[in-house]
Amino acid sequence: MKDTYTTSRRDLLKSSALAGGTLIAGCLDTTIDNDPSPDERELPEPQYGDPDREYQLSATESEVIVAGGESYNGWTYNGEYPGPEIRAVEGERVRVTIENDLSEETTIHWHGMVLDGDNAMDGVPGVTQAAIEPGEEFVYEFDAEPAGTHWYHSHVGLQLDRELLGPLIIEERDPHIEYDTEATLVLDEYLPTEPRVETSNGNGGGMGGMGGGGFPDAPPAEGTLINGRLPDEPATVDVEEGSRIRLRLINAAAAATYEIGIDDHDLVVTHTDGPAVEPVPVDTLEIGPGERYDAVVEARSPGTWPIQVRAVNKSTSAGRALLDYDQSDGDVTEGEIGSRQLQLSDLHAIDSLDEYRGEPDRTIDLTLSGEMMGGDEWTINGQAYPDADPISIEEGEHVRFRMANRSPMRHPMHLHGHHFVVGDALKDTVIVPGHMGEITIDFVADNSGAWFFHCHHLYHMETGMAREVPYEK
Ligand code: C2O
Ligand code: CU
Questions:
Q1: pLDDT at 49
Q2: Which of 178, 349, 375, 394 is 20–30 Å from 317 (CA)?
Q3: Does ligand 1 lie within 6 Å of residue 290's CB atom?
Q4: Atom 1, ligand 1: which residue's CA is nearest?
Q5: Residue 31 phi, psi (nearest 5)
């Protein structure tokens, strides 16, 4: 249990959040003790101590270099793309101070953190906080739970597609797998122009050949980036023969689902969206916007091999990084990738899923669709957020969402503040396949607050495919 000071400080964070104001630790002095003795003037130690990790981010406009000689003006954290890695050990307390040096308001969402008791730290403007004004600062603080490969990104408008994103890695105290080294691969689209909603008309957005109108979509990407690099100057992952490397894969793209594979190597999938699964060897896997997979690769085929990333159902050129053995001469070997593709049914959580089994207390049917002809909205049950009813739930309930996709495009649906069971896996983002695809998720309402539920295709979210999920009192 956390002490009352902690709570009151969090309340202060909350009210600061709601006021959209800045919070500077020193300001708190005056609000706690009426008549402090000199010694007591120091802030009392909260029971969890000072945060274990502190980071400082500044959101700025900056030049993003994607290959030698190729750059564009993006928005980044600390001038880096992907943004600086935030790393902690599970259970630690993390504090991130963000300074907004942009000309627009912004927020940060900690994608994958459940934020138990910390709904106000979730970074959804108008739902959990007022957006941070230009020139202002905001302090986020949260528990590093659960362990896994996560990420952070702006949750305002289309800012994610301007590259306001970075990896958030929470190390588990007791991994269920063995590995020697690790590398994080952030997959993204190369969009050197200003992001804006477009209506797809057969240019690869999934409506090809259907004629007539279209759905709101992303502008076509000009390439695929791995750790911010185009394939002509790829990111390199070093391995030693005989070692095992854990790859942490993050799809940070606004719109593209990717298929990833490594020539001549297996991917042994070990985690999805953080939680551990029974290791399963595959040749390739599909990863939707917002999803993460961890895979262990055994280095037993010396050389320099392509790590291939291909956008599914899009004509965008593929991305590539290199798996480079230490004794390799650097010449890239073109090998083969087999056809075993990871299926949702291959994923089996290590943690017990008992509490998610049995009949739900509340079942909610959600139809995901758009307007077939020239519409400018994506909808859930015919409503486009923010003009949409909240999906209210109650503390303690076992909740089931039954999602049915009445559109030809995939929707990577993400629930904030919870992990859910889908099939036999525990995830926070899941692709609902196009063309009448159906996915059912179950979760336990054990984290009261107002949470966001939305499609992680940024342009679908922006044009309505989102809902608030508040806990009723
Ligand atoms: Cu990664 Cu609501 O987002
Ligand atoms: Cu979608």
A1: 54
A2: 375
A3: yes
A4: 111
A5: -95, -5
Q: Is 109 in the pocket of ligand 1 (CB under 6 A)?
A: yes
Question: Per the confidence metrics, is the pTM higher than 0.85?
Answer: yes
Is 191 in a helix, a strand, or coil?
coil
Is the distance from the beta carbon of residue 153 to the nearest atom of ligand 1 less than 6 Å? yes
155 in ligand 1 pocket by Cβ < 6 Å? yes
Q: What is the b/e burial string over 429-463, where b = at least 16 CB atoms within 10 angstroms of the residue's CB?
A: bbbbebeebebbbbbbbebbbbbbbbbbbbbbbbb
Instruction: Name the closest ligand to CA 253.
Output: 1
CB 215 within 8 A of CB 370: yes
Q: Which two tokens stand for residue 12?
A: 């202060």
Euclidean distance between CA atoms 101 and 222, whole angstroms = 27
The closest alpha carbon to 468, from 388, 363, 377, belongs to 388
Ligand nearest, relative to CA of residue 123: 1
Per the CB < 8 A criterion, the answer to whether 349 and 426 are in contact is yes
pLDDT at 43: 44
- Which residues, at least 6 apart from 136, have a Cβ–Cβ distance to it below 8 Å? 20, 21, 22, 99, 100
H or E stretch at 16? helix 4-19
Is residue 13's pLDDT more than 80? Answer: no
- Band of the pLDDT at 200, cuts 50, 70, 90? low
Higher pLDDT, 308 or 11: 308
Sign of the alpha-carbon dihedral angle for 26, 30, 34, 35: positive
Relative to the CA of 111, which ligand 1 atom is closest?
Answer: 1
DSSP 431-466: EE-TTT-EEEEEEE--S-SEEEEEESSHHHHHTT-E
Cis? peptide before 146, omega within 30° of 0: yes
Q: How far apart are CA 428 and CA 363, in angstroms?
A: 18
**Domains and their CATH numbers in the chain:** 4-171 (2.60.40.420), 181-346 (2.60.40.420), 354-472 (2.60.40.420)
Opening angle at CA 184, ends 455 and 89, nearest 5 = 90
Give CA angle at 205 (199, 207), nearest 5°. 85
Output phi, psi for 128, to 5 deg. Answer: -115, -10
Q: Give DSSP secondary structure letters for 384-437.
A: -TTSS----EETT-EEEEEEEE-SSS-EEEEETT--EEETBEEESEEEE-TTT-
Percentage of the residues of the chain whose pLDDT score is greater than 90: 81
The DSSP bridge partners found for residue 137 are 99
Residue 48: left (phi > 0), alpha (psi -120 to 50), or beta?
alpha
Look-up: residue for tokens 């957020």? 385
Of 191, 193, 106, 103, the closest CA to residue 153 belongs to: 106
